[in-house]
Amino acid sequence: MKRIINAPFKFTRGLYDWTLRWSKTKNSNYALFGIAFLESFIFPIPPDVLLIPSVVSEPKNWRQKALICTVGSVCGALIGYYIGKVFYDTIGLAIVNSCNLYHAMSVVGEKYASHAFLSIFGGAFTPIPYKALTISAGMFNISLPVLIIASIVGRGGRFFIVAAAIRIFGKKVRYVIEKYFNIFSLIFLIMLILGFLAFKRLI
């Protein structure tokens, strides 16, 4: 039983170590852009996982790292938008099913009618699955400029806050994350659930 419980933590820890190695290579910026790009429509891991060690490794470049994350995420949002608009019945459904996004898509769809900008901003800034927002935006014919502007504000705000915090606290944050990684994994899961519930109630 203990092995079953620890398995997700081992996988997540392995992923953290893998992304940390990327942050120390000359291709770290490309990897950061790629993960932020893919996470917007298909990849299950948030780019914060790579953003944090990247800023720890190069604290003076924290603005650049946050900007790369933002640009990659917004560019990926365009792909998610067109998947929802043109290919929802094929590619879109496959992504929704594989990432277990059906409930999130339903909630987002209900909110888009009167609060499209706030819905996108709220989802972009909080830890709920961003791909549910981008794909839904295309499926429900939300204005593309609204998606882009809300994503820039929401995702940019999130990534710059994370990068600035790492810049300020630096290695102390990295030490705490590595020492208490399993606890942080549970906290992130709780934040994910609470963020989704708050988004559902307030937007």
Summarize the SSE layout with pairings:
Blueprint: H1 2-23, H2 28-39, H3 48-57, H4 62-86, H5 88-98, H6 102-125, H7 130-139, H8 144-169, H9 171-179, H10 181-202
Helix pairs in contact: 1-3, 2-3, 2-4, 3-4, 3-8, 4-5, 4-7, 4-8, 6-7, 6-8
Which features characterize this protein?
84% helix, disordered N terminus, 203 residues
Q: What count of domains describes the coordinates?
A: 1
The best one-word shape is globular
Which percent range fits the helix content? over 70%
Low-confidence stretches: 1-8
Structure description:
This protein has 203 residues and is an all-alpha fold. The chain has one domain. 84% of the residues lie in helices and 0% in strands. It is built from 10 helices and no strands. The chain has helices at residues 2-23, 28-39, 48-57, 62-86, 88-98, 102-125, 130-139, 144-169, 171-179, 181-202. Helix 4 (62-86) packs across helix 5 (88-98) and helix 6 crosses helix 8 (144-169). The chain is globular, with a radius of gyration of 17 Å.
